[in-house]
Every structure is written in C-alpha cells, then in structure tokens.
Amino acid sequence: MKQDTILTHFGYDTKSGVGAMAVPIYGTTAFDFGSATTAANRFALAELGPIYSRLTNPTLDVLEARFAELEGGAAAITTASGQAAIFFAVANLAEAGDNIIVAKKIYGGATTLLTHTIKRFGIKAKLFDSDNADELENLIDEKTKAIFFESLSNPQIAIPNIEKIVQVAKKHRVATIVDNTVATPILFSPFKHGIDISVYSATKYIGGQGNTMGGIIVSSKGLNTLLKNNPRYAHFNEPDESYHGLVYASLPEFFDINTLRIRLALMRDIGATLSPNSAFLLIQGLETLSLRVQKHCQNAQKIAEFLSTHKRVKSVNYPGLKGDKFYQNAQKYLKDGLSSGLISFDVGDKELATNIINKTKLFKIVVNIGDSKSLITHPASTTHSQLSEAELNTIGIGGGVIRLSVGIEDVSDLIDDLAQALEA
Ligand SMILES: *Cc1c(COP(=O)(O)O)cnc(C)c1O
C-alpha cells in the first residue's frame, strides 16, 4: 500500500464489526475475557488481545498500526502527549547512572524534560551541536543509551547532519531517537535514513486541527537487532523482575521489544495513556495529513519569500529559501525539498517583535504549531522562556525572533495580514 492509502485505510477492516466506515471509538476501560484461561493467557502473552485500556484499546490499535505502517516501522505505541512519548522513549533505554546525548536545538519542553527533569532520575544529558555533529563521537561512552535530535527543529527550522549522526551511532551501537513532529512522516522518513526510533507530538500536524493532545513512538524494523545481545541494553537481555522474569530479547521476532517494554512496564506503571476519543480524532487527522502538509508547505514557502524581501525583516529561517543555511539539507532529506509549515524571522528587537505580533489579525497568538489555522508566537518569552538568556542565545532565539506556524488558509490573505502588521 502507498502512503496516501495507508493514511485512509490501514489497520481497520470495515467487515470487523457492523460495517462502520469511521473507526469505532471503543469507550471501555476493560474487556470481558470470557474464560479464566483466556485471562491468564493474555497476561502471559500466549494469546494476544485486550486486557485493560491503560495498556491497549482497539481504537488505539488502529492508530498505532496505521502509523507504524506509514513509517515502515515495526510497531508503534501512542501516549497521552508528545512529552510523554519523549519521556517513555528515553526512559525505556536509560536508567539512573546512564547518559543520553541531546541536540541543543530542540523544542523547549523537550529541553527541560531531558536536561532538568530526568537528571533528577539520575539520567544525565550531554548537549551537542546537531548542525554539524562534529563533537558527537567524543561524547559517547559505555553509559550512553540514546542520541536525541529533531529532524526539523522548532523554532530555528534547522535540519541536522542526520547522515553523520546515524553513522556515529551505528558505529557505537547506540540508539538514535528523532523527534519528527515538525517534518511529519510525509516530509521525512526516519527509518529510510537509518534512525532507530521516532517520536511525535501528534497534537500538532497529525491531529492537524488543534483539538487533541497525543504522542506516538515508533520502532524501526532493525531495532530488535540493535537491542538484542547489546551490552548497552542489558535490561532487554536479562529477566525483568517486574514481569515474572520475562526476557524481552528471548521473545519471538514478531514482537517489537522496544514498544512492548514501554507498554508492559512504563505504560503499566506510569499510565500516560491516550484516550480512545483522542485516538479517534487523530485517526481523522491522519486521513488528510498528506494533503494538509503539502498546503502548509506551499503557503509557508510563499510567506518566507515575502518576508525575505521585506525591509523590516533582518533575517528569515526557512530551509525552502535558496540562501538558507539548511537549503541543501532540505533538498537532501525532505520530500521534494518541501520545508514544513514553520518559519521564524528576526526583526531585530523585542519591542518591534511584540508590536508586530499584536497587530496581526488572522494569525492568532498561540503557542502551538500544526493547526490548520495560522499561528504566531514570540518563542523567547513563551515556549522557550524557561531557558536561560545564555541558552537562548546559543540556540539562536533572540528577543526579535517571531515564529509562524503557517496554516492552510488562502496565502494571499495571510501575506496581507503580515504586510499590515509589519507596517507598524
Ligand atoms: C509540541 C512539541 C512537543 C511536545 O508535545 P505535546 O503534545 O505538547 O506534549 C515535542 N516536540 C515538538 C517538536 C513539539 O513541537
């Protein structure tokens, strides 16, 4: 099946119930096993089927299967938010005493989670410059459990040297985790580039209408091989005391042991489960994902071109512009060079940036991205305000920077709105 067909059909059989065309919402917390033997078999993984909706639910199953297929991955697990997806992806590989290597240019919430919150769990983050990844190899030691970066970083719209990151990771047999939220599987295919795990805030382009929180983690097909018999990941190769001595690495190859362990251990104990109602909305979003992403990109390209010639704009970050620092990487990694719906631009100082933001009418002042409606934000005082001045400067988010999440409206209306705001 090709991508657009997977988005509309995969993982759901209309003949499985009463013929409902839309995927049914299984609004149930638990499932009748019918017999005590079936109940025991399900817990022992001898028979696969639902147990309790904190672990699995048939509506979530469709979303997970569809998403894994979309990416060409082995399996997926959904979570209550993108932050939960990032936390689970990392916590499944690392424990107290370990370290992870994290790109400097990532989403603000991911930075605080990975550099501050999990430090209190004993997992240390080492930061690297993902634009060139020159220092990456020197940061790896035997306690390094993951390398985390974004395929298109929010809000710098930077595209890392993915080839180099993957090459270094493979050499040391360390798992790579990419946050592919901004690119989406439509623009960037993580596993075709050798990445091991992808994570998403489904809240953004997947849902696409700004109405649902959600997260997704996907394993590549090669991930079992990386985890099995790899001393870095001893916990997959030794009995799990919390699951009556289960050795994940000894399970049949059919099981993707990364998402399985997230489900059986982390989701069981922490419980950041997606609700079936949210899964339903995200499934609706997936049906139009490819159409929307193309329109977001076309609109953003035209707006970036408009901004780059405007006298009040000092600089524009958009990899679809020929002069952009990441233009070559966009051509190399992103589908048809389409460069996402995000643009950031610098007007020089905070006061002017604030005035421009306040004067826009169609662009709403919102700290979200990926909505079908256009959004405008001042990252330094909002999404990234918990970072220090020094942190902000090293990652290029000064007071004059404005971020746009370009929607799917008529682009001439959006340009008119920005033009009048910039006349301030
Ligand atoms: C929004 C976002 C997140 C966090 O996702 P939530 O669904 O808000 O928890 C993570 N990464 C990126 C790139 C994001 O834009």
TrEMBL record:
It comes from the Bacteria. Coiled coil: none annotated. Gene3D superfamilies: Aspartate Aminotransferase, domain 1 (3.90.1150.10), Type I PLP-dependent aspartate aminotransferase-like (Major domain) (3.40.640.10). Its cofactor is pyridoxal 5'-phosphate. PROSITE patterns: CYS_MET_METAB_PP. CDD domains: CGS_like. Keywords: Pyridoxal phosphate, Transferase. InterPro entries: Cys/Met-Metab_PyrdxlP-dep_enz, Cys_met_metab_PP, OAc-hSer/O-AcSer_sulfhydrylase, PyrdxlP-dep_Trfase, PyrdxlP-dep_Trfase_major, PyrdxlP-dep_Trfase_small. PANTHER family: HOMOCYSTEINE/CYSTEINE SYNTHASE, HOMOCYSTEINE_CYSTEINE SYNTHASE. Belongs to the trans-sulfuration enzymes family. NCBIfam families: OAH_OAS_sulfhy. This is O-acetylhomoserine aminocarboxypropyltransferase/cysteine synthase. The lineage of its organism: Bacteria, Pseudomonadati, Campylobacterota, Epsilonproteobacteria, Campylobacterales.
